[in-house]
Design a protein that fits this description.
heterodimer, A: alpha+beta, three-stranded antiparallel beta sheet, two-stranded antiparallel sheet, 10 helices, 6 strands, elongated, B: alpha/beta, TIM Barrel, eight-stranded parallel barrel, two-stranded antiparallel ribbon, 11 helices, globular, binds fe (ii) ion
């Protein structure tokens, strides 16, 4: 008699891999109990494929529904979820898709997939009360380079080699991407979402670099240097005011003073 | 909310993400709401709305991912996340399934069946003790919908559940539709099943829709699939009538998870369940009056 752990390993192989070997020895129910186990196999593949389709609808439109679903079913067998929170499932699905060479457009698939993942993430974020620029008024100018800004949780900064934001806009309008959008066009994108909504804004490369550094938790001085590395005449002061004007800053952290 | 007041609640409905904005905005007349924490833990916006709703509606937390039946152990990281949500919601019920869904770090997104023997019983009793300890409240264990059984089973599901209650002090969530589904699929009497459950342990009912398919390799037979995608069948409501008479009124939930209709359709299902409860209470009153 197999122990429970062995039984569960065999059922796992049936449900995930479609390998039913050994299960007939311990199952009962109906005339063909092994076939009954296929109900669970079917549910596993269908429910997770559906979750991926819901996560990456524009990607599915780009590569075609049938190809997407076939790839999704392959993916769910090779990469079962690690958590019961299915909203967290499928982060690396675009990379898996892109690895299927027959699909072509590897870089576009990756870029669009990355954007859709972040859209799903930021749209379910909450937003905090934004600070005004007066939050900096009490900080001596000499200490400014050492501060860190905490930004809204529903932000993502993505660089892409394709105009994936326009592909998303077309998708939301119910249209497939036109040929011109499939040509390489470098963009620097800020995605800001909260409470079911999002917006996508293209930024100049230096501004994007500055804000991304802030979001990563860099000191203001380091973020300014990164901006100037991207563009020699980058103005960190104006860029900082822009962060406040756009309502992105929610807290100022000054290590020495614990603000 | 006291247990005394929960038994008088009308039927509640499962709150799924596509409905949460509508419910938060319109505050419909529903007695209580049940949520799957797995839908909310990775969704700060939905959690924010839910925490607000929990100030107005009694909320039940029904977990699908703790996996008390996993031979390799429950998902403790997930249990800790569920605990964090429970701390914010203070639900009046917390429940999960007599099933397993994780295996060596993989989540199989389904409620998988268990053999009913001593090994499984010891394992589940340990896991339920751990869950109740972590959550600091009683856990209601739900009877599963089954398509297969196990040659290794040495006791009936009802005996297994009764023994879990005796060993752990857990309570039972009687999914009446699951009783019907499993009774057809595994060929037993659903009324006898209800008779065998420990009467004082049942603290909640579920009602959900199922689909009928031809059984594989046996076109003349049917297998019922627990999809929660259609209205509750009359036959399940008849069984619910019997369950109410045996266990008394308990918080009853309408489960609908796939092909989700408008929220109003869920409320209509709750009204159907409430009509059954009124009928049973009226009948019991007349029997009592007749002496
Ligand atoms: Fe249920």
């Amino acid at each position: 008699m197999p122990r429970l752990a062995d039984t569960q390993a065999l059922i796992r192989a049936a449900v995930v891999d479609g390998d039913f070997a050994g299960t007939a020895a311990f199952l009962t129910g109906g005339r063909a109990p092994v076939a009954r186990l296929r109900i669970h196999e079917r549910h596993y593949a269908a429910s997770l494929s559906k979750a991926l389709l819901a996560r990456y609808p524009a990607l599915a439109r780009l590569i075609g529904q049938t190809s997407f679903v076939n790839a999704a079913q392959d993916y769910v067998r090779r990469h079962p979820p690690a958590s019961p929170c299915i909203a967290e499932y499928g982060l690396d699905f675009p990379r898996f898709l892109a690895s299927r060479r027959w699909l072509g457009r590897t870089a576009l698939v990756l870029a669009l997939g990355e954007l859709e993942w972040h859209l799903g993430r930021v749209a379910i974020a909450i937003s905090h009360a934004a600070l005004g620029r007066e939050a900096l008024a009490t900080i001596p100018s000499g200490e400014l380079p050492e501060i860190r800004l905490e930004l809204q949780p529903g932000l993502a900064y993505l660089g892409a080699a394709f105009p994936v934001d326009d592909i998303i806009r077309l998708h939301l309008a119910g249209k497939p991407p036109c040929g011109c959008l499939l040509e390489p066009t470098p963009i620097w994108l800020e995605v800001h979402g909260a409470r079911g909504e999002f917006r996508m804004v293209r930024l100049p490369a230096a501004t994007w670099t500055f804000r991304r550094e802030l979001q990563l938790g860099s000191r203001l001085g380091r973020a300014a240097e990164a901006g100037m590395d991207a563009k020699a005449d980058f103005d960190p002061g104006q860029a900082l005011l822009g962060v406040f004007a756009d309502g992105l800053a929610v807290a100022v952290h000054c290590s020495e003073r614990g603000i | 909310m006291s247990l005394h007041s929960t038994s008088s609640l009308n039927a509640g409905v499962g709150l799924r993400l596509p409905h949460i904005l509508e419910v938060a905005t319109t505050r419909p007349a529903v007695s209580w709401l049940e949520i799957h924490p797995e839908n909310f833990l990775a969704n700060p916006h939905a959690t924010e709305l839910l925490v607000d709703l929990a100030r107005e509606y009694p909320v039940s937390v029904h977990t699908v991912g703790i996996s008390i039946g996993s031979a390799r152990g429950i998902d403790r990281a997930h249990l800790a996340r569920v605990r964090s949500l429970i701390d914010r919601l203070d639900p009046f019920l917390v429940s999960g399934h007599l099933a397993w869904s994780t295996h060596e770090g993989e989540y199989l997104n389904d409620l998988l069946p268990l053999p009913y023997d001593e090994e499984t019983l010891d394992l589940l009793a340990r896991h339920i003790d751990e869950v109740q300890g972590e959550l600091a409240r009683p856990y209601l264990v739900e009877n599963p919908s089954c398509y297969v059984g196990f040659g290794a089973s040495r006791m009936k599901e009802t005996e297994f559940l009764a023994e879990l209650v005796a060993r752990t002090g857990c309570r039972l969530l009687c999914d009446v539709s699951n009783v019907h589904v499993s009774s057809i699929n595994l060929d037993y009497d659903p009324y006898a099943y209800l008779d065998e459950l420990p009467v004082d342990a049942v603290g909640e009912f579920h009602l959900g829709g199922f689909l009928v398919e031809a059984d594989a390799d046996d076109a003349s037979a049917e297998v019922l699939i627990d999809t929660h995608s259609v209205p509750i069948s009359d036959i399940a409501l008849d069984l619910y009538d019997y369950a109410l008479a045996r266990f008394g009124p308990q918080p009853t939930l309408i489960e609908w998870d796939s092909d989700l209709p408008d929220f109003a359709a869920l409320l209509a299902e709750a009204t159907r369940a409430d009509a059954v409860k009124r009928r049973v209470l009226y009948r019991e009153k007349r029997y009592a009056a007749a002496g």
